[in-house]
Amino acid sequence: MNPSAKGWIKKLLAEYNAHTETLAVFSLDDLYNELKACGFVYGTNFRAIFDRIDNSDLTHEELCKVNLVLSFRFVHEHYKSQHNFIDSITNFYNLVDDYKSSFFEELFLGKKKSFDLLESMINKRIAIDDNVITKNFNYFITNTLLFVDVLAYEKYLQTGDVTDAYLRDIEATIETIIFAALDLKKEKTEYDESLIRLFEASFRYHNRERLHYENVISKITNPLTKYYIIDLVCMTFWTDKVIDNEERKFLDRLGEDLQMPTEILLKATDDIYVFYTEHKDDIALLKSRNMVQSFYENSSNMVKKLINRNKKRLATEMYESKELMILLTQSTTRSLTDEEQKRVKDQLLDIFKSIPSLAIFMLPGGMLLLPIVIKYIPNILPSGFDDNRVNEKED
Q1: Average pLDDT over the chain, rounded to whole?
Q2: Residue ranges of the Letm1 RBD domain (predicted)?
Q3: Does any domain span residue 297?
Q4: 116, 133, 159: which is the final residue of a domain?
Q5: What's the domain range around 343?
Q6: pLDDT, tens digit, for every residue of 224-253?
Q7: CA-CA distance, 46 to 230, in Å (whole number)?
Q8: Residues 6+ apart with CB under 8 A from 52
């Protein structure tokens, strides 16, 4: 299953459906705890929820896609919705005005089928940056407030409707409480500043007047929303790995106002400590390395995964060009001339045009990654297959 290629949602659901009976025993609280343990709640995904999907070669962004769709599926089944799942999600996103196909898109591509449409919607929701370099090749790339979508979808299934006003209220509540927690810090660390930028980039709605804590706290009634806000507050207190007296007072007050037991607060602080400690070398928020080094390392990892994912299709295309194969082979033992490099680049770009998940290298900024691509391509093996092919009986 390849979440960067067309057809991945259909393949994902086919794999998920094989475990539907065993997942029926889990509650919404179990779902939330899984989303937190895998990193979805914290904005960096390291595995698929409930360990039902093989994710050994998936990127953080791809895992985020998988976990968002699986969360929707879980909630859809929890409420025993009689509506088609794919149509339910696409209708939900259309209601919150999060996806609108342009006139030109419909004119040249035609009306998208349900699965294709949902894939487009999910792709749009995951990313928070329009810059191809930061969006596609940085670990720190995904919308950290995607659980709001899950909360809104739950509301949609309960009432048959969800409005912009509902989403604005949730975001305004989160923003108010998070920044009230951050205001406790006299001096903002690099972690704090990065966290602020991440939250601001993840909000759907911007340029609104900030509310007061007292005005929003009484609006929080959904248990999952309460868990979520407590965990986001714990994220803001992570800087020194210790919750000081003022932060403890704020957290205690929050727990009291939300009518949550002390055990929930203790679990939230323990969970963020365990998660950040376990993944400290893989979370961009926690890294202090310079931008150039981080960019190169993250780009190399992403390029390597993309090449491995598409190596069979790439090999098939490349074997049709004897010159390209010779030049790439020679590039491992000597430096290519400027003219040779240009021929390699031009031929590779022609190949990338035929492989959708590699078309990223043709976008602005993608050219910077070609040297990394050329470095890994000589390791490609032959043959090809469709990672997202689903047998008809699995439809």
Answers
A1: 80
A2: 336-393
A3: no
A4: 159
A5: 305-379
A6: 999 999 999 998 888 767 778 889 999 999
A7: 21
A8: 15, 16, 19, 23, 70
